[in-house]
Amino acid sequence: MAEFDEHPDEDDTLDRILATGDARAYSVFGRAQALQDDASESTSDGDQFDREERRALRRVSGLSTELEDVTEVEYRQLRLENVVLIGVFPQGSLEDAENSLRELSALAETAGAVVLDGLLQRRPHPDPGTYLGRGKAEELRDVVRSLNADTVIADTELAPSQRRALEDVVKVKVIDRTAVILDIFSQHAKSREGKAQVELAQLEYLLPRLRGWGESMSRQAGGQVGGAGAGMGSRGPGETKIELDRRRIHSRMARLRKQIKSFAPSREAKRANRSRFAVPSVAIVGYTNAGKSSLLNRITRAGVLVENALFATLDSTTRRTRTEDGREYTLSDTVGFVRNLPHQLVDAFRSTLEEVTYADLIVHVVDASHPDPAAQIATVHDVVGDVGSRDTPEIIVFNKSDLIDEDQRLLLRGLAPDAVFVSARTGEGIERVLEAIEDRLPHPPVDVTLLVPYDRGDVISMLHRRGEVATIDYREDGTFVTASVSEEIAAQVTEFAVEA
Predict the structure, then answer these.
(1) Smallest Cα–Cα separation from 126: which of 81, 83, 177?
(2) CA–CA separation, 252 and 246 (whole Å)
(3) Rounded distance, CA 328 to CA 370, Å?
(4) CA 360 to CA 437: how far, in whole Å?
(5) Which pLDDT band holds residue 74 (cuts at 50, 70, 90)?
(6) What is the pLDDT of residues 151-203, one digit of tens each?
């Protein structure tokens, strides 16, 4: 501090340079604005929409989650972020944009924020500079100030340059949809594998968004000064802090990938055990908060966490159950999907989604009470296709059917004529789901005819559990049975084979 006091002229010079730089910056924008004002007075821009509509920011009503009665949760304002949501939509897609923004509102609330307002701008595509455009970004700044918000969330993934430019205008933190989803995943991950997968996805998202200034961007000294001892000719500029951070992130990502890979043998051993005993696998997939865990609990009493929140459960859960005729199969609950699901998460959770890849049957759970179930179905089909299970047989189940009327059921029938309507809360339709699963399970390929001695009841029990028993007759010399079984089971019972 004493150094600066000894040279007051240097401070004056620095202030003068900074003041001149600011004046130049403002004068440039002023001239640009003047040029805009002198532009054509036409109210139409050709094939695009009217200028007035393009200039307007459209508010989406009903998004605010702020408590009106502050006494309900006394310290809520101290704990939660106050956020404003923004989005861009092209001509003719207002309804879809509003649904997407409402979903973003639910995501933000699940992450622990209070949504104060939601704004949509109609334009052909996001502005490459500030996402909304310079003028609309300044209007957003005024909205943020008036609401006392501390965060702005964009409904699509922002480029690093867009996020920085928008932050420079609105003067508060700006994040995007991907950052919110990653934050929710980091809060809800409980197992070692889940935590590793989420951290890997977060680092992949962070890597291109590193930024710094001042001392954090300074270089480490090279040559002897840096302790390398290389002598003359080696005194290069050294490594910048941001390059060092990138290298550390790459190293950490490599360790995480190795750690996630180490979990694979355990899953493969369990899966191989099921395959060896020919136990069919059924995977439950669907949009987040559609009721997958509730359905699994209703069918198998698995005791999986059920919560009215997005991405409440992340780790795959597998439970064994039986059909009415005694055949065993497994039901696996998987991580939920959402529109614009970050590619980092799809890649990081590919090991969890392997249950979908190796499934013999997919039970696709859809929220029947959602305003846009068709978009949910399309999103799930896209992710299922990404993991290579597009051709796996599928049963569509419309859950929460107790919240819809007959007219809505007719509309949903148009989307999926063979779908089953259920309510995991009330138990309606659960029997029909079980019947549909039983009908669509793969049938064992080998037909056998056996005469099993009465002292080998374990063989008859195994045939009921792991095969399909067609006929059974109790004779004097033993139990005569015809059944369909896997090749492994057929090899184990060859000693009891007889002619039909």
Answers:
(1) 177
(2) 10
(3) 33
(4) 11
(5) very low
(6) 999 998 899 889 999 999 999 999 999 999 888 888 877 778 888 888 988 89
